[in-house]
Design brief:
Layout lengths: L15 H11 L3 E4 L13 E2 L17 E4 L1 H9 L2 H12 L5 E4 L7 H10 L2 E4 L4 H16 L2 E5 L1 E5 L2 E7 L5 H10 L3 E4 L2 E6 L5 E5 L6 E4 L3 E4 H5 L7 E3 L2 E7 L16 E4 L2 E10 L5 H16 L4 H14 L1
Parallel strand pairs: 2-3, 3-4, 4-5, 8-15, 15-17
Antiparallel strand pairs: 1-5, 6-10, 7-8, 7-9, 10-11, 11-14, 12-13, 16-17
Helix pairs in contact: 1-5, 3-4, 6-8
Length: about 325
């Protein structure tokens, strides 16, 4: 079987508009002014409090980051005469910052709104406490900037292990996942899985938004998993711990590991994930095999490797 192809890695620039859309629910952000600035690109996925820049000092100013006006910055701006406040905003906006966010639900100064509209800089508002906003916004930005790709295959959570099942069409990937769900495990994505690499170099898998929680089962059609098996039968996103590659018997013989000593790996977005190749033949119980593979993976994490234990046992037997 040909190697399962990954889609092109998606790492397109993140705009202020994308940040606004993604942050409406998670950060409670709304647009106060400067709609024209929503197309600006957020170069560095970090938020920054302008601090000294508001006093006119721009040495080492992080202009490529979202600028956050918290309680201290707001109090300082309130203390300035209106003319000086306008001057400071004009200077700050002139440095081509991505956007500015006023936290704690503070009312944006009318003159700042006017300057933002004129200069095309988006000004946002959030009711969140500043430190909570900065923490949550940083995670959101890392998520938006994370490299992504789409891969054909089905992903499930088996006993806490994220298992991605790949293979040629018709080998039973979805049916295997369905059998695992009936045994109490959970679906992450069916047929097409989206991968992203986070800042800790972990590979995470999820379904495409439009097909999330749905499966296609040959002979039955489309099913909605939580409606049949309950909400505990699905997961939104899961770390990819193990790749199970299904191959027709004969095709898999060259890669077949009979003892478990081979260290096969599958690379996605630069992350090498342990791989297991399972031959598919009539009568083979793929559900049981994948479930056992996940349990064996967990056991190896604890330090117990069956083949090593057996090898030591045989050596002790011959030595005695």
């Amino acid at each position: 079987m040909a190697e399962n192809k990954q889609s092109a890695v998606q790492q397109s620039p993140v705009t202020v508009g994308q940040f606004l859309d993604a942050g409406r629910d998670r950060l409670g952000v709304e647009l106060a002014a400067g709609k024209a600035g929503l197309e600006r690109v957020i170069i560095e996925p970090v938020v920054h409090r302008p601090g000294l820049a508001l006093s006119g000092f721009y040495g080492h100013f992080a202009r490529k980051r979202i600028q956050v006006v918290g309680m201290a910055e707001y109090a300082y701006l309130s203390s300035l005469p209106e003319a000086l406040r306008i001057q400071r905003m004009e200077e700050l906006f002139g440095l081509k910052i991505p956007c500015m966010v006023f936290t704690r639900g503070k009312r944006v100064f009318p003159e700042v709104l006017r300057v933002a509209e004129r200069d095309g800089v988006a000004v946002l508002r959030s009711n969140m406490v500043t430190r909570h906003f900065m923490h949550a916004a940083t995670f959101l930005l890392e998520d938006l900037h994370a490299p992504r790709c789409k891969v054909h295959g089905t992903m499930v959570e088996v006993a806490g292990v994220g298992v991605f099942i790949e293979g040629a069409a018709g080998l039973g990937k979805s049916e295997t996942a369905l059998g695992l769900i009936k045994r109490g495990h959970a679906l992450v994505a069916d047929d097409l899985t989206q991968f992203r690499r986070d800042s800790s170099n972990n590979l995470l898998g999820s379904a495409m938004a439009v097909t999330q929680y749905y499966m296609e089962i040959r002979g039955i059609g489309i099913i909605h998993v939580p409606s049949i098996f309950g909400v505990a039968a699905v997961r939104g996103e899961k770390q990819v711990d193990l790749v199970v590659t299904l191959k027709r018997q004969g095709e898999a013989d060259a890669e077949l590991d009979r003892t478990g000593t081979d260290d096969l790996r599958r690379d996605f977005l630069g992350v090498a994930v342990p791989q297991l190749v399972i031959p598919v033949a009539p009568g083979r119980d793929l559900v049981n095999l994948v479930e056992t593979a996940a349990q064996e993976y967990k056991l190896r994490l604890s330090g117990f490797v069956a083949v090593r234990e057996l090898d030591s046992r045989i050596k002790r037997h011959h030595a005695g």
